[in-house]
Amino acid sequence: MSMTLTEAAEITIDAYDHRITTHWRSKPGMGKNETIEEKVIAPLADKYNEPFGLHVVHLSTMDGIDVRGIPMPTEIETKDGKVMISKCTRSDLMPPIGSPRRGLVFLDEVMQVQDQSVLKPVARYVWERKIGEYSLPPGWGIVMASNRATDKSGVSRGLAFFTNRTMVLPIHGDLDTWVTWAITHEINPMIIGFAKYKSGRIFNDDVPDDPDQPFLTPRSLVQCGKVLMTLDNMTLAMHACSGLIGDGEAAELIAFIEVANEMPDFEVIVRNPEGTKVPQSSDAQYAITQMLAHEVSPETAVPVFKYLSRLSKEFQVMCLRDAMLRPNAQSLMANEEFAKWIQKNSQLVLTASGMPQ
Q1: Do residues 315 and 308 lie in contact, with contact meaning Cβ atoms separated by under 8 Å?
Q2: Is the pTM here over 0.90, yes or no?
Q3: Once rounded to an integer, what is the mean pLDDT over residues 76-82?
């Protein structure tokens, strides 16, 4: 049974209190790392009202020495006199000296590890919280992440004794969770619009048969948004996006952007919300809805939603929901004229907020 990233975060917060290691598994590029930082570490810091550390370890880049520590000859005193033994230095999996009292060690790319001399000590670490002579501080927990064996990303066959020591959380893509993240991180609004328009392709579980072929994921789409913000030459932008998400998806993205460029300007809509042309194609409606949600302000809210009322309820709800996620949402709702509009359209507001009608 798979779950959303938000659900995995909530389970991981609870698992920390029980000293259980969670293992997040999903298709590449779904946002596991960002979610752990923002929806696990930050809430735990709030919960305990103290700093909460995060020690990230890319396990696939490590070997047995990194995990166990470097053996060092050490002289010790015994009843029979001094003898030489081998002691290992502190493992790189341990939180750095001076870390906060509480925190999580994040073991990333766990199942990409091919060397069992790495996995075996890690199995002990996630269960006993020990490597060699070193123990994980009592306020620290462990969370792991990896891709799945079906993702063609170098994932090794799992070990039963390793799996049985963790709580495995299979994760699927979720548009609403990603849109909330994208808006709060001010991702290019046309990228958000395209993600909604092609959600079935971005958040599915498929990966190409050819591991060298670029493919579309939320992560690679965000990178396209950065390219499109700086490259004015659309031919170069097409080549750049092809290198991130593949030729076919890049062509569709550029076509979507070109449709967006032909939309009426925001200022024109605000000046004449009832007379400005409304696009008829679905891709243009996705694009204009996202543009309006990104640009709307307390001063322009009334004409913007007057214009939106000429689109279907689906797009009105979509725009209102995304506008409410933006940093200026509180001032938007405090606008007197917009407050009157909200009263007249209470059913729409309830739908956008996810409340039962």
Answers
A1: yes
A2: no
A3: 67
